[in-house]
Design goal:
444 residues, Growth Hormone, Chain: A, 2 domains, Major facilitator superfamily (MFS) profile domain-containing protein, transmembrane
């Protein structure tokens, strides 16, 4: 019987079989190389985005005050950007789900470039408000980059499964899948944060010269144009393939509500954790001056130290931490507990070295929390078609926490204690977040 089977397979048949396997492997290899190139382009775009924005952001408040408006007006104008981001994030993400990541990203970056360019020739309050409104509505580069990476991770999982099936058919042995498990987000956070570290330094040096603000605004607008060109050249063909039926397409308008409903518990945890950290950072300068007598100069150095800790934490996340934690929920719980311990130390210590140690833990662990929260949300995604909506809503929750932090901090200082009110609220938020995490149902 074996001889009969072997006789039925000619040499030509074997050549066809192995030729098909080879072609399949070459296709997977080509797709992987393309995915790798796109990933690096996304990293570069994210770096340039934060590098450019952080060059200008620290200079804006003084520019607004120089226009002749008071402090209250300056505060109102400063909140326009965050307010617009709060509502535009989910909408832009949803558009990218339906009309293509590359197309939406290209248009949004071009409009953001226009918004920054308007700041260069004029210091009119009206022009500044228009500029911040445009940027607030359309500057969602980081959000769309995350959606790109989520799509690429999904594609790599599919290619890994295909490679596994091919090898299993040849060797009759099952190999373990090599899914990315969100592995691109760690390097993404590291590289983009580096842009935020170096941008203010370079922007500050340029602004010291005559007409420095105008030069910085022009450079920022030009860098956004470069990003738009990169998207047009390398990412414009990246489009989510729609597999929705007519019935599903007809109900797509309710996708944003579906995203919020299905992930409300995780978004609540994100809001509480973000608010707890933002409340501390809102009064950071005032706190170290009043409690430890730290000068503005050394407070600035400490701020740079915290930024570098975030970079180091993201690097460790991408190289080691994600290999230890296979469940985002476990990483989120442990990171939130670590944040709670560090916030408690910040609130109650009277020793400056211990305060710095707690700040070190806080800023080192913060990327772990953000990454785990993002992976939890993506794990619940019913389809890659929702990645844009998810990342947009994720961005809006962060903007909401940022907007609320100043108000919550002020109320806490008035009602609880001028010195420790913010810290008490921060610890309470973390405690609620831990309780919510313990009650979460495991992701299917």
């Amino acid at each position: 019987m074996p001889n009969a089977v072997n006789a039925s397979l000619t040499d030509g048949d074997f050549e066809k079989i192995f030729s098909a396997k080879k072609t399949s492997k070459e296709c997977v290899s080509g797709e992987t190389n393309t995915s790798r190139v796109k990933t690096r382009i996304v990293y570069l775009i994210a770096f340039l985005d934060l590098f450019a924005a952080s060059m200008l952001t620290p200079l804006l408040r003084q520019r607004i005050l120089d226009s002749g408006i008071g402090y209250t007006g300056a505060g109102f104008i400063g909140s326009i950007y965050a307010f617009c981001q709060l509502f535009s994030g989910p909408v832009l993400g949803d558009w990218s789900d339906h009309y293509g990541r590359g197309r939406v990203m290209f248009i949004s970056i071009l409009l953001s470039s226009l918004g920054y360019f308007l700041l260069a020739p004029s210091n009119s309050v009206v022009v500044i408000c228009v500029s911040r409104t445009i940027c607030g509505c359309f500057k969602h580069t980081q959000t769309l980059c995350k959606a790109f990476l989520a799509d690429l991770d999904t594609e790599d999982d599919r290619h890994s499964r295909r490679k596994k099936d091919d090898e299993a058919e040849i060797s009759n042995e099952h190999t373990q899948s090599t899914g990315t498990d969100g592995g691109r987000f760690g390097p993404f956070m590291t590289i983009s944060t580096l842009g935020f570290v170096f941008g203010p330094i370079i922007g500050g040096h340029i602004s010291e010269h005559e007409g420095g603000f105008e030069v910085v605004a022009s450079i920022v607008a030009a860098m956004f144009l470069v990003n738009a060109l990169l998207v047009g050249k390398y990412l414009s063909g990246t489009r989510r393939q729609s597999h929705m039926t007519k019935k599903e397409a007809a109900s797509s308008k309710s996708s944003l509500w579906t995203v919020m409903k299905d992930n409300a518990d995780i978004f609540l945890v994100q809001f509480l954790v973000s608010l707890s950290v933002m409340v501390i950072r809102t009064n950071y300068i005032q706190y170290v001056q009043e409690n430890f007598g730290v000068s503005i100069k050394w407070a600035g150095y400490l701020t740079g130290y915290q930024a570098m800790l975030g970079v180091i934490g993201a690097m460790c996340l991408s190289t080691s931490i994600m290999k230890w934690y296979h469940r985002p929920a476990a990483l989120m719980l442990h990171a939130t507990i670590a944040l709670g311990i560090s916030l408690s130390g910040i609130a109650f210590t009277r020793s400056f070295p211990i305060y710095v140690l707690c700040l070190t833990i806080l800023n080192f662990v913060s990327p772990f929390s953000r990454m785990a929260n993002m992976n939890q949300i993506l794990d619940r995604a019913k389809s890659p078609e929702h990645h844009g909506s998810l990342m947009g809503t994720h961005q809006s929750i962060g903007s909401c926490a940022r907007l609320s932090s100043s108000v919550v901090s002020g109320v806490a200082q008035d009602l609880i204690s001028p010195k420790y009110g913010s810290e008490v609220v921060s610890i309470a938020c973390i405690a609620i977040a831990v309780g919510q995490l313990l009650s979460l149902k495991p992701t299917a």
